[in-house]
Specification:
This protein has about 500 residues and is of the alpha+beta class. It binds iron/sulfur cluster. Iron/sulfur cluster binds next to helix 16.
C-alpha cells in the first residue's frame, strides 16, 4: 500500500524509520540582506527536522509572499523562486508529517489575511494538545470564520488553528499574541510575521528548542544554533520558555506571556538535534559522547570493536569506546538520503530492507566481537535486520548498546515514535527484546545516566516517552491508553501569565 503521494506507508517501509521530529523553524529580519536566500540556507541546516515539505514567507514591509511545496528544501526552492521572494523579513519551515497526512494543505508557513489588512504567516515546531478547545474558541469568537478542515489536518497542523485564532482579533499582532499565546497548550516553538515585524515565541515549558542569533544587519531566530552558524550569525541566547520576542525597524523587544516552567525534550540530546547544535550551554555532540561513556560504565561488554549505527549513534559509540578501551571503528556505511526518495522501491529493493540504508564493511566486521551503539529502539525491526546483516557479514558476536532508555510511551509534543502498541519496549523485558532482535546481549543507558549526561536538572526535562510522566496536558481522548502513565498536568499553571 502506498500513500496518495506515492511514498511507502510506514508499515511497509523497509527502513522502519525511528523517531521523527515534527519540524524546523527559522525567522530572519535583516534589512539590506538577501533574506530569502539566507532563510533557504537556514532551512537547509534544519532539514533533518523535517523532510516532507518546505516553505517560506517573505515580506518587503508592504506585502507578504508565501511559497511552499512537498519535498526537501532543495526540491522545493530554486534560484528563480528565491529571486522572486524579495524582502527583508522572512520565516521558513521544514516539516515532517505523520503517515497519511503528507499533503500540501499541511505544509507551512500558514497564511491568513488580517481583519485590518495585511497578512499573518506562521510556522510551528511542536504539537498543541488542546486543538478542540481552540476550534471551539474560534467558532465562538467569529462564527463565520473558516476553521481549518479537520479531515485534512494532522497532529502537527494544529498550526492552522493558531493562525485562524490570531486572525479573529483586529488588534496589533504584538498585542493579540499576548492574549492568544497563553491559550495554547502543549509544545510550541513559533515563528510568525506580519508585513513588517518578526515574532518568535516558545511554550512555557520550552519543550522544543528555539534560539536567537545576531546577524550583521539584523536578527535570526531558529530551532537550532547550527542554523544560526550556517547563516553567518552569532548565537545570542535561547528564547526563554514563556517568552515572546518581537523584531522590527525599532529593534528587538521581549515580553513574557507565561511563567517559565522548563521541561526541555531530553530526546533532542539523544537523537533529534544536530550534533553541532548547542542546547542549554552544551554542544549536543559532547553530551552524546558523555552518554556513550556512561553507557560503557553501566553496561560493559567483552568485545573487539565498537561500531556506531551512523549517524546518530556515532558520538555515543566514540564515548563508549573511549571509556571501555575497546577499539572504535566504522563497520557500517550509511546511504544518507535513500529514505527520502519519492520513488517507490520495487519488491526486490524492498526485500533488501536495511541494506538500502546501511552497508556493512565486511573487512572490518569479519570475525570480530562487536559492540553496536544505536540511539534508540522503537519497533525493533531495524535492529533485527541490522544484526542479521552483521552476522551475514561475518560478525562473531553482536552486543547492542542503546544510548537512550527503552521508549515506553508515545510523545504528544511533536515527535512521532509510534503508538504504544507498536513500540517494542512496553510488552517485553530487555532479555526478551534481546532475543527478539537476535543480539548476543542488549543494554540501554539508565534514565538517571542519560539525565546526568545532559547536566540539566531532572525536573527541567521532559522524559515522558521513557517514564510516562507527562508534564503538559495530553490531547483529549489519549488518557485511556495512558492509564498507567503519570499524568502530572492536572493544572495548567505554566500557561498562566
Ligand atoms: S515525550 Fe519524549 S520525545 Fe516527546 S517531548 Fe518528551 S522527552 Fe521529548
Amino acid at each position: 500500500m502506498t500513500r496518495a503521494d506515492g511514498r511507502l506507508t510506514a508499515d511497509l517501509d523497509p527502513l522502519d524509520h525511528g523517531p521523527q521530529d515534527a519540524c524546523g523553524v527559522i525567522g530572519i529580519y535583516a534589512p539590506g540582506e538577501d533574506v530569502s536566500k539566507l532563510t533557504y540556507f537556514g532551512m537547509y541546516a534544519l532539514q533533518h527536522r523535517g523532510q516532507e515539505s518546505a516553505g517560506m514567507a517573505v515580506s518587503d514591509g508592504r506585502r507578504t509572499m508565501v511559497f511552499k511545496d512537498m519535498g526537501l528544501v532543495s526540491q522545493v526552492f530554486d534560484e528563480a523562486t528565491l529571486n522572486s521572494l524579495v524582502g527583508h523579513l522572512a520565516i521558513g519551515h521544514t516539516r515532517y508529517s505523520t503517515t497519511g497526512s503528507s499533503v500540501w494543505d499541511n505544509a507551512q508557513p500558514t497564511f491568513r489575511s488580517r481583519p485590518g489588512g495585511g497578512g499573518l504567516s506562521l510556522a510551528h515546531n511542536g504539537n498543541l494538545t488542546n486543538a478542540e478547545e481552540l476550534e471551539a474558541l474560534i467558532a465562538a469568537r467569529d462564527p463565520g470564520h473558516e476553521v481549518p478542515h479537520k479531515d485534512r489536518m494532522d497532529s502537527s497542523n494544529d498550526t492552522s488553528l493558531v493562525t485562524a485564532l490570531m486572525t479573529t482579533y483586529d488588534e496589533p499582532v504584538e498585542k493579540l499574541a499576548m492574549t492568544v499565546l497563553p491559550l495554547l497548550k502543549g509544545a510550541f516553538s513559533l515563528v510568525f510575521m506580519d508585513d513588517t515585524t518578526l515574532y518568535a515565541a516558545r511554550d512555557p515549558q520550552g519543550i522544543r528548542p528555539l534560539v536567537l542569533g545576531r546577524l550583521h544587519s539584523g536578527w535570526v531566530v531558529a530551532s537550532e544554533t547550527a542554523a544560526i552558524d550556517i547563516v553567518g550569525g552569532t548565537f545570542v541566547r535561547e528564547i526563554e520558555p514563556g517568552e515572546m520576542v518581537t523584531i522590527d525597524a525599532a529593534g528587538l523587544r521581549t515580553c513574557r506571556f507565561a511563567r517559565a516552567r522548563p521541561k526541555g525534550c531530553i530526546f533532542e540530546y539523544v537523537y533529534l538535534a544536530r550534533p553541532d547544535t548547542v542546547i542549554s550551554g552544551r554542544r549536543v555532540h559532547n553530551v552524546r559522547v558523555k552518554i556513550g561513556k556512561i553507557l560503557a560504565q553501566e553496561a560493559p561488554a567483552e568485545a573487539d570493536l565498537v561500531i556506531p549505527v551512523p549517524e546518530s549513534g556515532t558520538p555515543a559509540a566514540i564515548g563508549y569506546a573511549d571509556e571501555s578501551g575497546i577499539k572504535y571503528g566504522m563497520g557500517l556505511v550509511r546511504n544518507n538520503y535513500v529514505g527520502r526518495t519519492f520513488i517507490q522501491p520495487s519488491q526486490t529493493l524492498r526485500n533488501l530492507g536495511i541494506r538500502l540504508k546501511l552497508n556493512p564493511l565486511r573487512d572490518v566486521i569479519e570475525g570480530r566481537r562487536l559492540v553496536v551503539v544505536d540511539d534508540s529502539i522503537v519497533r525493533g525491526n531495524t535492529q533485527r535486520q541490522l544484526i542479521r546483516m552483521l552476522r551475514e557479514a561475518g560478525a562473531a558476536e553482536v552486543h547492542v548498546r542503546i544510548s537512550s532508555p527503552p521508549v515506553q510511551w508515545p510523545c504528544f509534543y511533536g515527535i512521532d515514535f509510534a503508538t504504544r502498541a507498536e513500540l517494542i519496549a512496553p510488552g517485553l523485558s530487555v532479555d526478551e527484546i534481546c532475543r527478539s532482535i537476535g543480539a548476543d546481549s542488549l543494554a540501554y543507558i539508565s534514565l538517571e545516566g542519560l539525565v546526568r549526561a545532559t547536566h540539566v536538572p531532572t525536573d527541567d526535562l521532559c522524559r515522558a516517552c521513557f517514564d510516562g510522566v507527562y508534564p503538559v496536558e495530553v490531547p483529549r481522548g489519549a488518557e485511556p491508553m495512558l492509564a498507567e502513565a503519570h499524568l502530572t498536568h492536572t493544572t495548567q499553571e505554566g500557561t498562566q501569565p
